[in-house]
Design goal:
By secondary structure, the protein is α/β, with parallel strands linked by helices. Helix content is 57%, strand content 11%. The protein is built from 10 helices and 7 strands.
């Protein structure tokens, strides 16, 4: 009888343990499901901050760096369509002049432009730009300008020139531009800073180590200054970006995961203040497929898995890029 009682008690304990673990497991699954549901609600149903808060239609100015191509040009077009006046900053004056004219004629906004090469990091250039901005009520800054490795390259083989350019453009330019405009934003207790980040800053990317590190810096720095500036009425939003069709990505065809600049920028500007798929403060992953991908990275498999995944992807890209270089070198030699 004692053996039977012991067996029954043991069975009861096992049943209770199974029930407890079942409840925990169900709770965990429900929590994850709710977090995914929040992502979908953010990207499909909720609307972000209206740009009237930042002076749209009331004489407010937005600055866009890297404004002559791709995402940067699209930011300029869509901000102008919201009746923001624009300061366009990029390297080529002729392109800046053409875009400024297009914005003025199409959207009846005011524009200014300033040509500078961000890779030089010239103090004189930044001082000249500051003089231009002194006459503008700057409400929005889009730190969009960026540069990358030419092809995936092991760190020890990368040229000092490319390393320097990535650091100067992706890190120093964002800090210097922000330092220029923040004082007047603080004075008015109103402003928006959009930093165009990358999934390469979310998960380290081997063979793009300097670019990946620069975007990781941008993510961490955005969170730090976001916390500093929030009590002063300024919103900082690091935009976590996967691939977009652009000259820098070298991708020409759109797909489910790789949008054209127009829908991508529309998603960014329509979700200011929302996190989308991002789980870190002062960060947004607004485009719907990017948001789901961000959620998967945060919730499925380990970070080591995703780093290895990036390693494998970049190894393949590097092999194809080197083969292309070999073909081009052989063709050039043949034509000589």
């Amino acid at each position: 009888m004692d053996k039977i009682t012991h067996f029954v008690q043991k069975s009861d304990c096992n049943a209770i343990a199974v029930a407890i673990f079942g409840v925990i497991g169900a709770g965990f699954v429900a929590f994850k499901a709710l977090s995914l549901l929040k992502v979908l609600v953010d990207v499909f149903l909720r609307s972000g901050t209206n740009f009237k808060k930042y002076g749209a239609g009331r004489g407010g100015w937005a600055i866009v760096t890297g404004a002559t191509d791709g995402i940067g040009k699209e930011f300029a077009l869509q901000l102008a369509s919201k009746k923001m006046n624009l300061v366009l900053v990029s390297r080529t004056e002729s392109k800046l002049k053409a875009i400024a004219k297009e914005l003025e004629e199409k959207y009846s906004v005011q524009t200014k432009y300033y040509a500078m090469d961000f890779t030089k990091g010239s103090d004189a250039d930044y001082q000249g730009l500051q003089q231009v901005l002194n006459s503008c009520e700057v409400n929005v800054l889009v730190n969009n300008v960026g540069t990358n490795h030419e092809i995936p390259t092991p760190f020890e083989q990368e040229s000092d020139h490319i390393v320097k350019n990535i650091i100067e453009v992706n890190i120093n330019a964002a800090m210097k531009m922000t330092k220029i405009v923040v004082p007047q934003m603080i004075e008015r207790k109103n402003g928006l800073i959009i930093n165009v980040g990358s999934f390469a800053g979310l998960v380290p990317t081997p063979f793009l180590s300097v670019y990946s590190g620069s975007k990781a810096f941008l993510s961490s720095w955005s969170q730090a200054i976001g916390a500093e500036l929030k009590p002063k009425g300024i919103h900082v939003q690091n935009v976590n970006t996967f691939f977009v069709v652009s000259a820098m990505s070298r991708i020409r065809r759109a797909s489910l995961l790789i949008p054209m600049p127009k829908p991508y920028v529309r998603s960014v500007l329509s979700q200011i203040g929302l996190s989308g798929g991002a789980s870190t403060p002062f960060t947004s992953t607004p485009f719907y497929s990017h948001a789901v991908a961000n959620w998967l990275i945060d919730n499925v498999f380990s970070r080591a898995f995703w780093v290895q995944h990036n390693y494998n992807v970049q190894i393949d890209i590097r092999k194809r890029a080197l083969r292309k270089r070999e073909r081009e070198a052989a063709a050039a030699a043949k034509n000589q």
